[in-house]
Amino acid sequence: MNNYFMRISVIIPTFNRESELCNTIQQVLDQIRIPDEIIVVDQTKKHQEDTESFLKEMESKGKIILIKENVPNVARARNIGFRYSTGEIIIFIDDDVLLKKNFIEMHCDEYKDIHTDAVSGVVYDTRGRELYGTYNSILKKAFTNERFINLPGGNTSIRRNVLESLCGFDEKFILSSVHEDKDLSLRLCKAGYKVAISRKASLVHLLSLGGGRSVAGNRLVPRKERLIPQMYFYLKNTTFLPNIYYFLKILQNHVVNYYKLKHPVLLFRSLLVFNISFF
What are phi and psi of 215, to 5 degrees? Predict the structure, then answer.
């Protein structure tokens, strides 16, 4: 089938975003290749009046399918959007992005190769720096002998039948849902599916305030909210020895580096504080 005539669904999970969400939806509507459906899974309890009016207008005009979800969880939100979708190709994007007019067209172009099962689009920040590394050498060494290609959750497309075969995203990635996209990428790799990398299907991630991962004006999430999904990812996907290695790496990132320890004696006190804050 001509890739241009494949049915395309765009899924946008959103949480506590206002003008950025409206701008993202409008950019999708302004694409050269307009998708067949735009599904917005809204996990925000209450929007600002302008945002609420925009969403209702877009829904009433049939421009978007709006789904309300009370419990924030990006993995679950993507799965809900997928269940409502009808497209042969599913494109997942974040709710605070900048898109070129040919963004969807560039994703579709990759499926001219009938063997392509998913597409990893490159993500940049507002300074032009590439985020979320396409290749991950640590994961490659730990999990597979093949080249591991990361599918960033905020710029990924995948064939419907492939995502169905993998049972979607793992909804056990709770809180900030760190690594739920890496988990899907790993399962794609292990199952032998072909993932293409597209620099033409790139976007800019604004990393705006709000959303599930932004705290106090920066990109850091609380240690507890980042630690739980990270630990789940490595416990789920590695054996004993790699688990020990990644536990120590996480300990370094969440405890040692966080407290900027200048002497090993302070480690015990920091661990105590960390455990209290964790529970």
Answer: -135, 125
- Read off the pTM: 0.82
Phi first, then psi: give them for residue 194, nearest 5 degrees.
-95, 125
Q: pLDDT tens-digit profile of 175-192?
A: 656 789 989 998 998 899
Tokens 């900048």 -> residue: 98
DSSP 225: H
| Dihedral angle computed from the Cα positions of residues 88, 89, 95 and 97, in that order, rounded to the nearest 10 degrees | -150
Q: What is the DSSP string of 24-44?
A: HHHHHHT-SS--SEEEEEE--
Reported residue count of the chain is: 279
Strand partners, 13: 41
CA distance 149 to 119: 10
Tell how far CA 197 is from the center of its chain: 16
pLDDT at 136 > cutoff 70: no
* DSSP states along 74-127: HHHHHHHHHHH---SEEEEE-SSEEE-TTHHHHHHHHTTSTT--EEEEEEE-TT
Tell me the Ramachandran region of residue 62: left when phi exceeds 0, alpha when psi lies from -120 to 50, beta otherwise: left
Contact 67, 81 (CB under 8 A): yes
Largest CA distance in the chain: 65
155 CB burial (10 A radius; 0-12, 13-18, 19+): buried
Residue 148's pLDDT band (cuts 50, 70, 90): confident
Q: How confident is the model at residue 169 (pLDDT cuts 50, 70, 90)?
A: very high
